[in-house]
Amino acid sequence: MNQRLLAEIGRTQRLEIVNALKRSRGLSVNELVDRMRMSYMGIKQHCLTLQRDGYLDTWRRPQKMGRPEMVYRLTRRAHDLFQADSNRFTLELLDSVQSIYGPNAPEKLLYNLFERKCANLKEKVKGETVADRAKSLAKIRDTEGYMSQFVTDDGGPQILECHTPLQNVLDKYPIIGRLEQEMFEQLLGTRVRRQETRNSGLYECAFYFAA
Description:
51% of the residues lie in helices and 19% in strands. By secondary structure, it is α+β, with helices and mostly antiparallel strands.
């Protein structure tokens, strides 16, 4: 994490709020109270401080009945609080590869990298069923900084990721999304659909598959 930003945020409770919001599409103060076992006013004050400092914004979430509910969510600035394996040097390296070896060279390099990563993960991902392998893969990806979890909802089973350490490289080289999807298919042994969502500071990537 960015040490300067950590010092600015200051308190453990604020970091817990940021982490809870990172794994969601936004939470109300009451929802944060339920998760964190803190007082309503304590949570509210922390949220107002984080909003003042540019880490949170608010939106009105429609309700089935009654008025919309005010919900806090992360801004793009909050992304810098989380693990980022990619950096300017990585992008400059890929630019140099393109300059020396031609316009297709960065994609070839990324393809080779994902092939090697997939081979390495095949030795670690365990499970007799697709669901078991998905749970194993989610645990590994979570340790790598993807905030990954295996979930099942109305859309079916999926690996849901709330962060990517490769975001700046992914922004410039969207082929990484396709390479991730193909890697998941090989590791799970089934077809996978990758769906990426971004909104304000929200990053969410769901990998859907048939269990």
